[in-house]
Amino acid sequence: MTDSLEDNRAPKVQASGLSRRAFVRYGAASVGVAAVGGGIAAMANRPALSPRQQGLPTIPDWTATDIPSLRGRSALVTGGNGYPVDDRSGLGFHDALELARAGADVTIASRKQERGEEAVRRIKASVPGASIRFEALDLSNLASVAEFAERMRASRGSLDILVNNAGVMGRKSREVSADGFERVFATNTLGHFALTARLLPLLRKGNSPRIVWVSSSRALMGAINFADLQLAQDYDYGAAYDNSKLANLMLAFEMQRRSAAEGWGISAIAAHPGIARTNLVPDGPGPDSLEGRNHRYMPFLFQPPAQGALPTLYAATSPQAVAGGYYGPNGFLGLGGLPGWAGIPEKADDQKTAARLWGTVEQLGGVTFGRTA
């Protein structure tokens, strides 16, 4: 195969003032308007349900009140410290809140201790008696990931639900992690992959364990280019995010295939939130970016974060959620709504590329799956 997976790009458009990638992202060959993560892109080809999704039952209206009792079950949510400020909050905060409300023993893990502890305090205020704690974790730092996983293994015997939620959008200049990896790739994809590998022994001892990978509708515009996986040669903050979310989707599907083939007993599921009023753009490219202007001038398109969290919560808790499934909002163009089947981009089902990506991130993350008891 070639080193580039469907990396079809439009030629440069000099008059627009946009980069080549931005032109593709925001206008090339467009018919309809669709929301893509933190921004709005013109897209004619929102993915339909893939052949392997055909014939699956329609998902009835589902909200957080439909989460079954999770008493006796443990959950880990990465991120989770985005407690509400004005009309914005993090998806992971609402994941943790509803898991705790359903009775799970919840850990939220993120970089910012003060914010994490405040998120725990607010959840306990909303859910008296909630079992929830904060643990420090910097997903962009592989040493931090290893130390966190060691603490988890030392303090508990099993883990039932892992929500790989934390995510960042890049800033306009390329940044690298302490390990030298591009920051978005390091946080969104590599850190979560390494964390999951190191927690595999706990997950395999869990009660019907599930791993939920949070992707994005922007995965449709991502590409896996092994010649420049971390965009060292051709950086674009939007492409970095899109690529990381495509990678997460592919790794979720590959993880489920390997779990089934190797008998891990773990369900790997993917979900995306549509678009919601989160801090992803303010903390990333900022209010003057194309995504930031979408937030400012078209706020009516952005659903509340609590609703954006529903597909992830469905994937993490519903008895009807299917291993290897992909869930997102069921409303107009997948922008918002209640949980439904999300269309899978054809490139995300490329098993040959997914297997190569798996081996690559194993090597970069210094981890190996499936060799632990």
Written account of the structure:
- The protein is an alpha/beta fold.
- It has a single domain (71-365), classed as Rossmann fold, CATH 3.40.50.
- It has helices at residues 20-26, 91-101, 113-126, 142-155, 183-204, 237-262, 290-297, 305-308, 310-317, 351-365, and strands spanning 32-36, 39-43, 74-78, 105-110, 131-136, 161-164, 210-214, 267-271, 326-329, 339-341.
- The strands form two sheets. An eight-stranded mixed sheet has the order 5-4-3-6-7-8-9-10, sandwiched between helices. A two-stranded antiparallel ribbon has the order 1-2.
- Helix 4 (142-155) runs parallel beside helix 5 (183-204), helix 5 (183-204) packs across helix 10 and helix 6 (237-262) packs across helix 10.
- The longest helix has 26 residues, at 237-262.
- It is globular and about 50 Å long.
- The two termini are 34 Å apart.
Topology record:
Blueprint: H1 20-26, E1 32-36, E2 39-43, E3 74-78, H2 91-101, E4 105-110, H3 113-126, E5 131-136, H4 142-155, E6 161-164, H5 183-204, E7 210-214, H6 237-262, E8 267-271, H7 290-297, H8 305-308, H9 310-317, E9 326-329, E10 339-341, H10 351-365
Parallel strand pairs: 3-4, 3-6, 4-5, 6-7, 7-8, 8-9
Antiparallel strand pairs: 1-2, 9-10
Helix pairs in contact: 4-5, 5-6, 5-10, 6-10
